[in-house]
Design a protein that fits this description.
The protein has about 400 residues and is of the alpha+beta class. The chain has 16 helices and ten strands. Strands 1-5-2-4-3 form a five-stranded mixed sheet, with helices on both faces. A five-stranded mixed sheet has the order 6-10-7-9-8, sandwiched between helices. The termini are far apart.
């Protein structure tokens, strides 16, 4: 259990179960997500539909999420009513009353979500990116599972999965807020201490990135081009360099690619970059929604700019601006309770340490232009790039995009 002070009137509670989509067997994909949906349905002490309503009457809110590496249950609770809400939350997670009726209902909800995912371009595209980057490997498993695998999960399967994974040595609890009452700390410690069961560490195999090109049909008005690079940092210096490279190229609306592709030339409706990070893998992805006939021009600019940074680096001005942008971004995130809770939990899962703002700011401050150029040379290579074209492109435009891919990043 970890606590972290924060200025604010409420406490963010995060219960992190160190199991997610990458830990599931191929025949039970989606079982972590299915279990996450089911635990708040009913507990042995609280009947159905009463859990959320009671939390809300006490002024709190609860939610949950499933990722590739963890399942998260969280609550935002007023300090004065923290203990009853935390008790209710932990009862729901560690004493759920899983029933066939509830399981059937949640299966229907989740399979509807899976079928409708292509209607949400942003969510669908990142789902596809993770799947294609590590196809056939555990990290490529979609957190939602598939319709077939979700439907075949039985109540017995769900109970067995819960008993095996919701055990003390696979649980982290984070408390984020100002002046967290000692009784809450003590109550959570006692609750975790009363849990039974133990399981060995979950062993994972580092994934192998699958470079190449792929066209995926989707009923969208504008196609999406994603240039994704295998970019797992092997040191703190590389981690800092990756963060600043993201800030330089596309993390912010004032970043380099946004100005070059969107504002100056009008080749994309939107363009940006983001990181997809895990304990043993990372992607640096540049994505752009484009007019179909402008796809090859937009993609050509993107890869040429990546080449330019690898060959010539960035300017001192860009470095200073990127550091300032990223510094303000981190400080802003740490002023928000939910954001800081998530930073703490993810750092504990990936690096076994709490998020340390001062350490991160010091790391970023130490990064040089040479560090960024060196990391760019490492990742901006064709054998470390996956190009996805999602939507609809004429064959002639597909060919131009593919030719650009083959000509660039030698």
């Amino acid at each position: 259990m970890e606590s972290r002070p924060l200025i604010g009137p409420s406490i963010w509670v995060g219960v992190w179960i160190k199991v997610g989509a990458r830990h599931e067997s191929p025949s039970a994909l989606g079982i972590s997500h299915l279990l996450e949906h089911s635990v708040f349905d009913e507990t042995r002490a609280h009947p159905r539909n009463k859990i959320i309503s009671r939390v809300e009457r006490l002024g709190g809110e609860i939610g949950a999420a499933t990722s590739k590496e963890y399942t998260l249950y969280y609550a935002n609770v007023p300090r004065d009513s923290a203990k009853p809400i935390v008790r209710l939350m932990l009862d729901a997670i560690f004493r759920p009353d899983l029933t066939r009726e509830a399981l059937t209902k949640e299966k229907r909800i989740i399979t509807d979500e899976i079928r409708s995912m292509p209607d949400s371009p942003d969510e669908y595209s990142w789902h596809i990116l993770g799947q294609e980057s590590w196809r056939g490997q555990a990290l490529g498993h979609p957190p939602s599972g598939t319709v077939r695998t979700v439907l075949q999960v039985s109540l017995r399967d769900l109970l067995s999965y819960w008993r095996s994974n919701y055990v003390p040595n696979r649980v982290i609890v984070t408390l984020t807020g100002s002046r967290i009452p000692h009784e809450i700390d003590e109550f959570v410690e006692a609750k975790l201490g009363s849990l039974r069961g133990r399981n060995g560490p979950i062993r994972t195999t580092p994934p192998r990135f699958r470079a190449g090109m792929k066209m995926i049909r989707a009923p969208w008005q504008h196609p999406l081009i994603i240039a994704s690079f295998d970019s797992f940092p092997t040191s703190d210096k590389e981690r800092g360099s990756l963060a600043l490279l993201n800030a330089v190229l596309g993390q912010f609306n004032s970043s380099r690619l946004c100005n070059m592709v969107r504002w100056d030339r009008g080749l994309a409706y939107s363009i940006g970059s983001r990181l997809m990070e895990f304990s043993d893998a990372a992607l640096f992805a540049i994505s752009a929604y484009v007019e179909a006939h402008k796809a090859s021009k937009a993609f050509g600019l993107v890869v040429r700019d990546c080449e330019s940074i690898a060959d010539h680096g960035i300017s001192m001005r860009e470095l200073r601006e990127a550091k300032q942008l990223f510094r303000n971004y981190l400080i802003s995130k740490c002023s928000l309770g939910q954001e800081l809770m998530e930073l703490n939990g993810k750092c504990l899962i990936r690096r076994d340490e709490l998020f340390d703002l001062n350490k991160e700011l010091s790391l970023v401050s130490s990064i040089s232009r040479d560090d960024i150029q060196s990391f760019a040379k490492k990742i901006f290579r064709r054998e470390r790039m996956l190009l996805l074209m999602i939507g609809h492109l004429r064959k002639s435009e597909q060919k131009r995009v593919q030719d650009t891919f083959l000509e660039q990043l030698e």
